[in-house]
Amino acid sequence: MMRKMGLLAAGAVVGAVAMGAVVQVGQTGSATAASSETYRQLNLFGDVFERVRSDYVEEPSEKDLIEAAIDGMLTSLDPHSSYLDPKSFRDMQVQTRGEFGGLGIEVTQENDLIKVVTPIEDTPADKAGVRAGDVITHLDGEPIAGLSLREAVDQMRGPVNSPITLTVRREGVEKPLDIKIIRDIIQVRSVRDRAEEDVGYIRITQFNEQTADGLNDAFSELKKEIGKDKLKGYILDLRNNPGGLLDQAIAVSDDFLDKGEIVSTRGRKEDDVQRATARAGDKADGKPVIVLVNGASASASEIVAGALQDHRRATIVGTRSFGKGSVQTIIPLGRNGAIRLTTARYYTPSGRSIQAKGIEPDIEVVQELPEELKGSEEATGEANLRGHLSSEDGEEEKVSAASAYVPAEAKDDKQLQYALDLLRGIQVNNRFPADPSQGIPN
User: Fold this and answer.
1) What CATH number is given to the structural domain containing 158?
2) In sequence order, what DSSP letters do the residues of 192-215 get, joined into one string?
3) Which of 113, 136, 362, 419 falls between 20 and 30 A from 106, CA-CA?
């Protein structure tokens, strides 16, 4: 199996989901000795730094200058390499664990104020009476106007058992409300499940340290609620899942596979190859599986979809995925934070690199867009990111920004309804059910 992989995440939530990418935590190999030309360029950097430090119109922060120079060097490589200052590194570690001290609300910014998207069930905010749609105007009596979303989130997070008072405006209530909340451990629930009558529906929103355990709980709950004999199959919804921990993506794939390779990573050197393979035991009990993907399914999501597609363990339904096929290593720098560096590409079991290409679904199903989103078909995805790693064969595929749309109501969700109809035999397609005997040789 691969070494344990880490997660880079930057969140705009207080006890909810965060964006991520497949990365690993570790050290890279020793660097080649620098040439005399390299030292000449470093001297150039020193000359420029000294001139800025001494002659800029206002006295600059030397720390900020150096950090910006480091970040500029890394971001010039590709869109996923960057510098993490100590605070960003701590935030990443918090998101990796999937739990932290906070309130338990998902928030967004609206007109310079912070609006509650939803309180998370059974968290301090939920118990204190915070409601979806509440607009937070003050934190401990201090106005929130002028703060960025991240700054507001940072203030709402804090040590467990510490108090904070939110002042909120609520529609239909004349006066602002003061709500006192005691912070507690908030667990980011990355796996949600429900019974769709005779079908088990499982949605994974990101891959954090809680994901594999959450999937196991979902299997148990659905088998108990529906009944193993009545359960026709599973829908694994990876739409709008931006990625996360590689080891969790491997564990999720393993739960559906009995044997065979799940993913491999290959670095710059020929011998820098790692492979992860499945262990015996299909927790879905061989039931038919449909994986839903769209243009915002990226990274770890694509690893799962690619593995199950190559082994013909699942039928992939939806639209082409994002196309992020690279691995970032998090290299700690002691008290100075860390760097996130792209060190490898990953490959599906059949040897496909999906970099800048994505996973093509077995059955394409395009959502019906509401009027306000029609015309938003501008290209997005990895292939449209400036400075992205090119695909190995030179063939790249862009995806549409509109392909990330998922209706709020299940009845309006064309992809979900098509998957349900396939599992119930209402729809027929020769790509379903997937036949593992036609998958890649193990």
Assistant:
1) 2.30.42.10
2) EEEEETTEEEEEE--B-TTHHHHH
3) 419
